[in-house]
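Section 5: illustrative case.
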């Protein structure tokens, strides 16, 4: 019986348990979900999503009974080939993400689907954070962080997962659950798995009987080391349950599944500062480390000259970067303290300790939040930024080694020399120098025949240099994976390697958990299945599929993420050789919905991407290219007759409003679904928060004043009024007018208002020319109304305003509701906070304009309690897409309702269409923030 037939039986069994929606067999799902941040690619035969511990147990039991290999995947930010497979991929689903803060932040209990950055955001209110701090922390999930023993910038051997772990829930290779802090569970496990625990104690005894090997293990873990299994567990612990728990850390899913972990946290000191120190060469940078280790230093991050070149054009970085000589290097040094006075003392100590070293410029610390955040954002995104500079068609291979501090000044130049010898002179080097941990990037083009042989020679030379010449670690924090599996024995020696294989056989006797990772008999597995990164489109060619973009994507739990869209698009457009014609055809058909139609094109992915890739722009390009002559003609007609089109829409909304008054909601809902489906999704799906038609805009100003403002009501707000649930029946245009008059502003409306539109609704659908035509019409009208920039312009919808800001004449002073109110109305109105709890939703456009905190600040002027949800980002309504593709909105807001407390009375935002979707999925009425401002304010002069 072959492997495929085994997987067939497995699929049938597990589909019966989980349901079809959690078992993905379509090629597009297998290809997309099989993508991770590493430089290998395998396509799984099946992908299974698990949302609970019980589901995971059922999957493992089925895999065990059918002898099917399974590989676990969390955030997919692994770099060494740990989370790819050509068998069954088990992916952590969105519901497997519970989190509990314990002991006022001193401990945290968390499931594997929680992202590290989110865990830190919850801990921050208590003044703590988790110990591991990988650069990918905002995308990486706890399951992967622990399974890879991630560390990061801050003393990895002290605060990594291994050293901060307190308890675990582990699903073993036979489906048994072990809860390490539950006495009953441990006792039962000791009875049912006595042979396994005895074998672990036997291995421990064997190590203790060999003083040389025992000392070697103790010595090698004084450095960061994730090569092979964590054999220090046998040195550090006596209880076999403790040994087993710590073996799970860094085991890369080859020994079991960590379904929950309890970790001790570390203080997150409130006062932080950093200095970007420039040095003449990398050797001089290495000399800083021993002095810095005697100071209170949180991090000392190395960036060589090539790394600095990759980021020298980033806004906010010192201009000196472009003038640095060849061979120069930089250290980003951070220190932190509980008070400003202590912080100053620590800075002075660092300056004193480094005073004897040669620097290119005087050392200067900054605690300015903008500079501090810029420096660290650049450093954390350095891998992606550097990889984006690769030559066309080149592969990106990242290596991760560590050297003892006392040999760094010799080891780093030796490493550079080795890179030059093998034609990798353009390699980028950076890393956590405080731990002697160095990352470097090589970018071979394997389409050239000699490059593969050269790479193999380089790898063998690298292994000898790290292990034999400098007694270092081949993998410091990225895990062994396929990348270093053939070299584990070389680093550890035959005795320890044989014990590692005994560990694998004892815990996973059927070898079904991630086989080939960490332990592999193929001496060339590191050079096989290398991922191709071919050119396909200028907008996304720089992507290396790191996955930093995924956490903000509204379709991530519905169809594809930005990384996955790019991976599939490349496969379709770059002649990826390993994909068959049949699979390519299936890929293209499925991409129409999963890649194009379900993309919100909100562009938030660009904010998380270190090189600013906006996958939404790619999708808009594809929509533009796919438009027929007929559809373009229709769009042009609508654009040229926009006032009439708006009237038709308002008429339809009025008719629906009348029906809603006559018919029961249940009838409206069933009828709405029927019409929506029969029309092929072309008729918007009715919901009980469907807006009624807006009242006609009264363009006569009620106030004459020296304070003037141009008010442009967005076309959506001119068409869509309130819904049946809203207590305030006045339209937004009327409320805005009342508010501006209250503040003493004379309102100027642009001419021919009914026909004006920013063009965004055209552009997002791929009608780029029509969108620019409408934008230019609006620009001309606003220039005339504002006396060519003399008066500020208010647009009552943030998404429209962002487009206007990005593309219109710079003379126009353009504002959306949040910034306009804080800048122009705050000092002209008397605010009285209402005694109520309100929700606020920051739209994608407001986020891109940096108005997250300003919205909260404005709402706090108006209400006693303001709640901004932490799990919810883009609402996925995507202009008007929520009416026709409601599943995107539903998926994006899947966590929102649980974040709305019963005491909340209303919700506020700055986009009418987003507000519809927010209302649908919370049962709470959402309106423009201007309704709340109007409710909470009075004219200052009237109040005196």
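Designed sequence:
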């Amino acid at each position: 019986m072959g492997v495929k037939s085994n997987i067939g039986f497995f699929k049938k069994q597990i589909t019966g348990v989980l349901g079809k929606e959690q078992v993905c067999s379509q090629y597009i799902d297998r290809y997309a979900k099989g993508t991770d941040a590493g430089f290998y690619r395998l396509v799984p035969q099946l992908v299974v999503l698990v949302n609970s511990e019980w589901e995971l147990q059922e999957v493992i039991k089925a895999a065990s009974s059918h002898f099917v290999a399974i590989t676990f995947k969390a955030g997919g930010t692994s770099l060494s080939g740990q989370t790819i497979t050509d068998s069954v991929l088990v992916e952590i689903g969105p519901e497997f993400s519970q989190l509990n803060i314990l002991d006022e932040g001193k401990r945290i209990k968390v499931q594997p689907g929680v992202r590290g950055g989110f865990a830190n955001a919850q801990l921050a209110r208590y003044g703590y954070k988790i110990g591991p701090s990988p650069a990918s922390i905002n995308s990486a999930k706890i399951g992967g962080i622990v399974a890879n023993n991630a560390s990061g910038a801050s003393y990895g051997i002290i605060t990594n997962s291994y050293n901060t772990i307190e308890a675990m829930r582990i699903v073993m290779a036979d489906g048994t659950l072990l809860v390490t802090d539950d006495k009953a569970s441990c006792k039962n496990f000791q009875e049912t798995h006595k042979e396994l625990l005895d074998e672990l104690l036997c291995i421990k005894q064997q190590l203790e009987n060999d003083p040389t090997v025992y000392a070697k293990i103790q010595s090698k873990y004084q450095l960061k080391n994730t090569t092979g299994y964590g054999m220090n567990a046998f040195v550090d612990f006596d209880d076999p349950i403790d040994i087993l728990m710590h073996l799970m850390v860094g085991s890369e899913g080859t020994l079991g599944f960590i379904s929950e972990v309890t970790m001790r946290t570390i203080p997150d000191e409130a006062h932080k500062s950093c200095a970007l120190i420039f040095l003449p060469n990398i050797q001089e940078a290495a000399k800083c480390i021993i002095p810095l280790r005697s100071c209170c230093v949180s991090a000392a991050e190395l960036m060589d000259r090539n790394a600095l070149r990759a980021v020298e054009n980033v806004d906010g970085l010192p201009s000196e970067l472009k003038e640095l000589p060849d061979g120069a290097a930089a250290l980003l040094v951070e220190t932190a303290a509980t008070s400003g006075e202590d912080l100053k003392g620590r800075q002075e100590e660092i300056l004193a300790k480094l005073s004897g070293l040669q620097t290119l410029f005087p050392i200067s610390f900054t605690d300015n939040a903008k500079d501090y955040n810029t420096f660290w954002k650049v450093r954390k995104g350095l891998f992606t930024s550097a990889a984006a500079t690769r030559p066309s068609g080149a592969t990106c291979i990242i290596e991760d080694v560590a050297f003892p501090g006392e040999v760094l000044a010799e080891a780093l130049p030796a490493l550079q020399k080795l890179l030059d010898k093998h034609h990798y002179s353009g390699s980028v080097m950076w890393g956590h120098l405080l731990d002697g941990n160095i990352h470097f990037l090589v970018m071979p083009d394997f389409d050239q025949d000699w490059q593969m042989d050269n790479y193999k020679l380089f790898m063998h030379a690298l292994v000898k240099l790290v292990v034999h010449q400098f007694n270092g670690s081949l993998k410091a924090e990225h895990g062994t994976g396929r990348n270093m599996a053939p070299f584990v024995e070389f680093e550890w020696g035959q005795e320890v390697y044989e014990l590692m294989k005994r560990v694998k056989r004892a815990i996973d006797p059927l070898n079904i958990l991630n086989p080939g990772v960490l332990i592999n008999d193929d001496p060339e597995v590191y050079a096989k299945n290398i991922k191709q990164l071919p050119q396909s489109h200028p907008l996304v060619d720089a992507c290396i599929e790191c996955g930093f973009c995924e956490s903000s994507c509204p379709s991530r739990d519905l169809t594809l993420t930005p990384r996955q869209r790019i991976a599939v698009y490349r496969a379709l457009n770059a002649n990826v050789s390993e994909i068959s014609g049949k699979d390519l055809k299936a890929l293209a058909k499925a991409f129409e919905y999963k890649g194009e139609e379900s993309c919100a094109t909100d562009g938030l992915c660009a904010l998380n991407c270190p090189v600013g890739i906006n996958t939404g722009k790619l999708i808009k390009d594809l929509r533009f290219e796919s438009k027929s002559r007929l559809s373009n003609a229709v769009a042009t007609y609508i654009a040229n007759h926009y006032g009439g089109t708006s009237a038709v829409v308002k008429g339809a909304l009025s008719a629906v409003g009348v029906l809603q008054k006559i018919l029961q909601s249940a009838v409206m809902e069933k009828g709405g679904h029927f019409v929506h489906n029969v029309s092929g999704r072309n008729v918007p799906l009715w919901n009980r928060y469907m807006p009624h038609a807006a009242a006609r805009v009264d363009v006569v100003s009620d106030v004459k004043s020296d304070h003037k403002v141009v008010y442009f009501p967005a076309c959506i707000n001119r068409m869509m009024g309130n819904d049946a649930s809203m207590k305030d029946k006045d339209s937004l245009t009327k409320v805005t007018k009342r508010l501006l008059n209250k503040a003493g502003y004379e309102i100027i409306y642009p001419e021919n208002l009914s026909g004006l539109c920013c063009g965004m609704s055209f552009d997002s659908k791929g009608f780029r020319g029509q969108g620019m035509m409408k934008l230019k019409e609006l620009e001309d009208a606003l220039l005339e109304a504002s006396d060519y920039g003399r008066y500020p312009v208010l647009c009552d919808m943030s998404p429209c305003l962002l487009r206007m800001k990005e593309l219109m004449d710079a003379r126009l002073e353009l504002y959306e509701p949040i910034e306009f109110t804080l800048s122009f109305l705050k000092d002209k109105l008397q605010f009285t906070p209402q005694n109520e709890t309100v929700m606020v939703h920051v739209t994608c456009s407001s986020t891109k304009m940096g108005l997250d905190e300003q919205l909260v600040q404005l709402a706090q002027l108006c209400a006693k309690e303001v709640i901004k949800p932490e799990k919810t980002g883009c609402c996925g309504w995507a202009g008007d897409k929520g009416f026709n593709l409601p599943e995107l909105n539903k998926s994006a807001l899947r966590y929102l309702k649980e974040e709305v407390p019963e005491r909340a009375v209303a919700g506020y935002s700055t986009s009418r269409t987003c507000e519809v979707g927010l209302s649908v999925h919370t049962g709470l009425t959402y309106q423009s923030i201007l309704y709340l401002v109007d409710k909470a304010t009075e004219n200052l002069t009237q109040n005196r």
